[in-house]
Design a protein that fits this description.
Blueprint: E1 11-16, E2 19-24, E3 27-35, E4 38-43, E5 46-52, H1 54-63, E6 69-73, H2 76-79, H3 85-94, E7 99-102, H4 108-116, E8 121-124, H5 127-130, H6 133-142, E9 147-155, E10 162-166, E11 171-176, H7 177-187, E12 191-196, H8 208-215, E13 222-225, H9 231-241, E14 245-248, H10 250-253, E15 254-255, E16 260-261, H11 268-274
Length: 278
């Protein structure tokens, strides 16, 4: 596999009394959804709209120096098939930033194979409900920093509680998202992604209440996904939660009032403004 250079993760190391102190910064993360080998975007996990080629999107995000990149194959689990290793290898070979892949991972061997292709982190979703021990096994084998748990979450009707879903939002696992996040951390997850089904593709802001609830009970890095439609939305998230991953799909593939397909990412000056209160 061709060698590649990745931009360093955003952190600052300060020397004090000869001991390094690592101060983490918020991360702004594009999320690419793959369906039928193409790049798509959904609204509330429905109505997938084709928006381009995944490899081309990766090349553009390379040029724009994105902090990280997440690729989720939304077909693999629903179709009951293995991850598309060739596609993953092609994406990893092209990507010059930390890459996280999710979709169809059901075993330790699959996860290790994906990491061996040059992916930094693997995202587990449906399998964590049926075989939660995989989280611990993988963390012990490769280190928890490479183990990401994705919680697809939806608010209950006539309630202020949140349930976890799988299979593209069609299967309600009937477990409390906040409690399950704590369980995943205890099992060894190194990062938790909170994906709001209600906010997906709506582009009217993150579910700050949901994010706040989960971030308050875990200590591992948390990434929010679902709802970002502008830099102001990311700034509102960062201002509230400080150190957090701000992930988005629609915002980074659509532009303007009529949602023309255009891959985009904040410039250095725009990122400085977003993070101005950090």
């Amino acid at each position: 596999m061709p060698s590649r250079e990745k931009s360093p993760q955003r952190r600052c190391v300060v020397e004090k009394f000869c001991e390094p102190i690592i101060m983490l910064f918020p991360r702004i993360i594009p999320v690419l959804l793959v369906h039928d080998k193409g790049l798509v975007k959904t609204v509330k996990f429905k109505d997938a709209k084709y928006v381009g080629d995944p490899i081309n999107a990766v090349k553009i995000f390379n040029e724009k120096e994105a902090d990280e990149l997440t690729v989720l194959d939304i077909d693999a689990t629903v179709e009951g098939r293995e991850p598309d290793y060739k596609m993953i290898e092609n994406l990893a070979s092209e990507c010059r930033m930390p890459l996280c892949y999710g979709g169809g991972i059901k075993s330790l061997a699959q996860a290790q194979r994906i990491l061996g292709l040059g992916v930094e982190k693997v995202a587990l979703s449906s399998i964590i409900y049926d075989s939660p021990s995989l989280v611990s096994e993988l963390a012990e084998r490769v280190g928890r920093q490479s183990v990401v748990v994705v919680l697809d979450v939806k608010k209950r009707l006539f309630s202020n509680q949140y349930d976890c879903f799988t299979h593209n939002g069609k299967t309600n696992r009937k477990v409390c998202a906040v409690e399950f996040a704590q369980k995943m951390q205890a099992l060894g997850a190194g990062e938790i992604v909170i994906n709001s089904i209600d906010n997906d593709g709506v582009m009217q802001g993150y579910n700050l209440d949901l994010i706040s609830r989960i971030k308050a009970v875990v200590t591992v890095p948390v990434t929010a996904l679902g709802g970002a439609g502008s830099h102001k939305d990311i700034k509102a998230l960062v201002d509230q939660e400080r150190i957090i991953g701000a992930a988005a799909g629609s915002m980074f593939v659509f532009k303007g009032k009529y949602k023309a397909v255009l891959i985009n990412y904040p410039t250095s000056a725009e990122k400085k403004e977003i993070l101005s209160n950090i």
